[in-house]
Structure formats: structure tokens, C-alpha cells
Amino acid sequence: MRIAFSLVSFIFTLCGVLYGAFHLFRKDKPFYFQMLVAAVGCLSFQQLSLLVNYLVDEYHYVSLGELGVFGSLMFLLSAEYSSLNRSENEEKGKKMRADLQAMIAPIVTIGMLIYIFFRAHTLGNIPALLILLILLPTVPVSFFALRNLIYPSDADGFLKHSRMSNFFVLLFVITLDVSTIVLLHSSLWGNMISLLSAVLATLVSFFAVRGDRQWT
Amino acid sequence: MDLINLNLYISIVIPMALTVLICKGRSRIAMLFVIIGMTVCLFTGEVNTLVLQISGQPLRFYVVNISPFVEELCKSVPLFLYAYILRPKKQDVLQCAVSLGVGFAIFENAMILAQSYGAMDFATVLARSFGSGLMHAIATLWVGCGIILIYSNRKLFYTGSLAILITASIFHSVFNALIGSSYEIAGMLLPVVALVPLLEIVIKRGINRRDRNKVVT
């Protein structure tokens, strides 16, 4: 069953990265866009790695491919953090209000991570500490994604046009945590939500392209 | 250090080092990075032996899951140092990345061939040279492309570098897993498939573009 989920997830993420990369090559795109495509690409490699591990019968080990989620989150963190415009002429009150409102996302993700850490000794063959390490960047990514969603204050205005993409980044990040929690209780539903996260990653790429078309 | 590897290294690198003196400009830097790649390969071989002993993991597990990360980390260090200390043009970063990967692959193939001389037939040598050579070049080229991406944004150095390194390591790991299994052909095809989008980047941003005065800052 897991191999089927990995295969479908890989196909979805591959479609996402190919679609994004095709538009990326046509002309120079903003840094935010490039990082989003790279994040989906890294996730695609993770799914490929898991798939290959199943094919060559090595799924009983912790695979290096598991770090693909961490890599993908690092790309997303780079994208979201780099798009923050910290210029002085911004309205300070609005900015502070957006920061405070965006704190909801990291609070929720921290809560989920604490739950995962205390409930899970291992997940499949991955130790709880490694799961926590892999999912730790969901905290800052969720904050910056929500912050940019509430108050898209990027320098070149690309974020305003790619809000849907940013929204799916936030959903993707939260789904990653939720899927881990559900995997602790039900393998089938956990895998279903993992698949959903792959679909969301594809949508990130799709809406980033759409946002770019509106922006240019 | 294994004496045969050291002898091999000396016998290849010293004549090549003389070539560095003859070459000029970008060719000299490229040749230098081929030598650096070989040196990194010699060093990584020792690190791998040490880590394998310390970790106590089975060889197959080590080759698929630990050695790709160790190798990619060792390969990327000279590239990061070159990019961040000397601040070269972006075309030079890509050129050096490919040269480093190729140098690494040349010496790795030479070491394996020397250690298992007579046990490998021509087809295996050909497949290994093609697959492994291309894979190392692509993994390092990806690191080079990543450096160009994050070069302009210094505050993203840690997150970006880590993400790039992880992606290259996973690619390497998938290749190692496939090449050592019954899906060997898929393993050899993987670098070829991955080369297509990277070549697009290289051609577009690339090594041979005319706007060479553009500095990545």
C-alpha cells in the first residue's frame, strides 16, 4: 500500500516541479518563485527516494530520502523569509499587527510538534527526535507564510499576485504535521494525508506560475 | 591511508598540475578544480572508511544513506569557499562545479578500477564511467546552480545551503540505491534524465554565455 502512495505522491510532485521548471526556464523569475519550485523538486526527490527504497527492498531502514521534507522546508523558509520587506517606510502599526496575527500559525505547529514528540517513540523506523528535527522548520515557515499572506510586503510585489500559492504553502506545512500525527494512529489515513501534502505541493507550483503570469 | 590510492593520486595529479601552469584564464581555474575534485575524492575515501567503522552500519546501508551525504558535503566545501571568498562570476561557479564533479568521478573510477582490477569487464567499466561520472558532475552542478540562486541573498546562506546539499545528497542516494540493485539500467538513466533541466540552466545562465561581465552579487 505504501508503495502505491509513494508512487502517486511522486507523480504529483514531479508534475508540479516540471510545470514550475518549464516556466522557470522561459525567462528569469523572482527569487520567491525559484525557491518554491526548488522546494517542490526536493519533495519530489524525497518521494523518488522512498519509492526506490521500496523497489530495492530497503524500506526497513531509515532512508536519507526522509530528509527531503527538511530540504523542502528549508527552501520554503528561504522563499518566505527572503520576501519580507524590512524597509523603514512601511507602516509600523500594520506590520506589527500582521506579526501578531501570524503568531497563531507557529503556536499551532509547535503544539503539534510537542504532541508528536511525546506520543511517538518511533514512526515506522524513524526515531521521534529525527521526526522532530525534520518537522522543526514548519514553525518558522508557517509564521512567515501566514505573515506574508496577511500583509504581503515584498519589495517587487510578486507576493501580492501569488497569495494563493502562499496559502497552499501554509496548508502544505500544516498538513505535514497533521499527517505525522495521524500516522501515529492510522496508517491508511496518515498516508492519505501525506498524499494530500504532495497534492498541495503541486498546487503551490501551479499557483506560483499563475501568480507570475498576473504579476508580469 | 591506502597506499595504492595515494600512489594513484600522485601519478595522476602531478602531471595534471603541470597542465595548470600551461593553461590560462578560465581553463586554468577549471583544471585546478578537476585537481581539487580528485583531492576531495581521496580525502572522502578516507572519511568514508572512518565513518563506516564508527557507525558500524552494513556496507549497503552506508553506501545508500550515509556516504552520499558525506561525499556531497566534502565536494561542496571547496565550491562554497570559492564562491563566498573569491566572489567569482556566476559562469565561473558553474564551470568550477562541473570540473570539481568530473575530477571527483575520474579519481573515484580510477580507485575502484585499481582495487578491483581484472574483476570488471569492459561493459561494467563503461557503464560505471558514464553513470557515475555524470552523476557526480550533475550533483555538483546542482550545488553550483544553488549557490548562484542564494548568492545574492546572504541572509539565506544557512537555510539555502542546507537545502541544496540535501537535494544533491538524495539524488546521489537514489543513484547509489539503483546502481547497486537489479535496476542498474534505471540508475544509469537517472543522471541522463536529470541532466536535461540542468543543461537548460547552464545554457541559459550559463557557462558559455556572452555576458561574462555580470558578477553575482
How would you describe what is shown here?
The complex is a heterodimer of chains A (216) and B (217). Chain A is 79% helix and 2% strand. By secondary structure, chain A is mainly α. In chain A, a hairpin with a 2-residue loop joins β1 and β2. In chain A, α1 packs parallel to α10. The N and C termini of chain A lie far apart (43 Å). The model of chain A has no long low-confidence stretch (mean pLDDT 84). By secondary structure, chain B is mainly alpha-helical. The longest helix of chain B has 31 residues. Chain B starts with a helix and ends in a 12-residue tail after the last helix. The C terminus of chain B is likely disordered. At the A-B interface, α2 and α3 of A face α3, α5, α6 and α7 of B.
Mean pLDDT of chain A: 84
Number of strands of chain A: 2
Main interface pair? Answer: A-B, 34 and 35 residues
Q: Beta-strand level of the residues of chain A, as a percent range?
A: under 5%
Model regions low in confidence, pLDDT < 50 over at least 5 residues of chain B: 210-217
Question: What helical percentage do the residues of chain A reach?
Answer: over 70%
Order of helices and strands of chain A: HHHHHEEHHHHH
Instruction: Count the beta strands of chain B.
Output: 0
**Structural class of the secondary elements of chain A?**
mainly alpha
N- to C-terminal separation of chain B?
Answer: 41 Å
SSE ordering of chain B: HHHHHHH
Radius of gyration of chain A: 17 Å
Separation of the first and last Cα atoms of chain A: 43 Å
Shape field of chain A? globular
Largest beta-sheet characterization of chain A: 2 strands, antiparallel
What's the number of helices of chain A?
Answer: 10
